[in-house]
User: Fold this.
Amino acid sequence: MYIKSEKSSNLNGEINVPGDKSISHRSLILASCAIGTSKINNLLESEDVFSTLYALKNLGVEIKKLDNTWLVYGLGLGSFSVVNPTLNLGNSGTGARLLMGVIAGCDLEATLIGDNSLSSRPMKRVIDPLIKTGAQIESNNDKLPIKIKGSKIPLPNNYISRLSSAQVKSAVLLAGLTSTGVTKYREPLLSRDHTERMLGIMGANIKTIQMPDKTWEITLKGLPKLKNVNFNIPNDPSSAAFPIVAGLIIPNSNLMIKNVLMSQLRTGLIKTLIEMGAKIKIINKNQMNGEEIANVIVKSSQLHGIEVPAERAPSMIDEYPILSIAASFARGKTIMNGVAELKYKETDRIKETIQNLNKLNIKANATNNKMIVQGVESDLIKGGIEIDSKLDHRIAMSFSCLGLKCEKPIIVRNAETINSSFPNFCRSMKKIGANINQHLEN
Ligand code: S3P
Assistant:
């Protein structure tokens, strides 16, 4: 499938974005570890989340949909059984890494496989800490396919990570659930904390403190009795990022996006855009499952370049490609610091973002840990090129948004990858006035 996106004059109205991807994965996994039936509403029904869902079914968990609610029949910690030992996680790094944590903590053996993108992503970051709990892991040079044999009683971990990665942190915590001791995990900057919040709601004894050296330590007491829960999943700020930026850069736009997750650990992009001069209003703040939500109002704005601090990276780690599109239409230079981790996402996002911008004659360059984008002086750019998603949904959607500001259309090839996080992207964008269409390849 390919997307053709073309010059659009204004974007207006309300746009629905789907449920949060991170919380969707976690609600299925944690509900599977609880005792009793959990109910999940607004689950993101995307390929990534279905990869986790099918993997859990292959581990013996019964999950089904009744009307609009997903029911997960949890049998308790350590109750998994192998129905099919090959778990295909498709494109999903979150699914693969979190499930490795679950398996490490159970008397199970399974092999994880994935698509070309996932099979080229680094897994040493989870292999190293999980081996410390007693799991046996065979990998293809620290990549998928990975065969993992968990231990019935995992050793309590005390792991100091040099990365601020919610996937690594969650894998360690999930393995720690079946340990008889206390698991400790430390990270330099606090990454998204959905696993910790959900475990707390489900009755686990879990605490986060900032250490004297400013790192963050999470402590989890093993063998909690996890109770079943009803989760309502807030809408995904990482998906909202696309209409937000499109609304800012297209003149005469006025958009509303409802019930967006407003966790401070996820909203670095909104903070950055406001610093760049974006007219964004956050209204109707509320709570949902221990997380803050709100409605976001966006109006077209003249942005200006800024320097984005490295410490903000974990709170906007998935948003740099679309921030680079906003930066392309800002006055002056935008400098994004602390972006080294982007190299290990669905593609090397530093390389793909910079190369694609350069193809469009937008001045952009990068070092190992920094991206710099020079805004164009004009309102529209020429366009008329093809972009290959290379199986990266966020690259596909970012450059589709850029096409709305081009004189000639942009074609995004291999665009079906957007189904991993935002299945109705084109339809939703069209509804607010975007000139964007998806087509089947001949
Ligand atoms: C995620 C964490 C982030 C993010 C990914 C989802 C999660 O990765 O990039 O899309 O749900 O835990 P890292 O925390 O590993 O950087």
Summary: DSSP finds twelve helices and 26 strands in the chain. The mean pLDDT is 97.
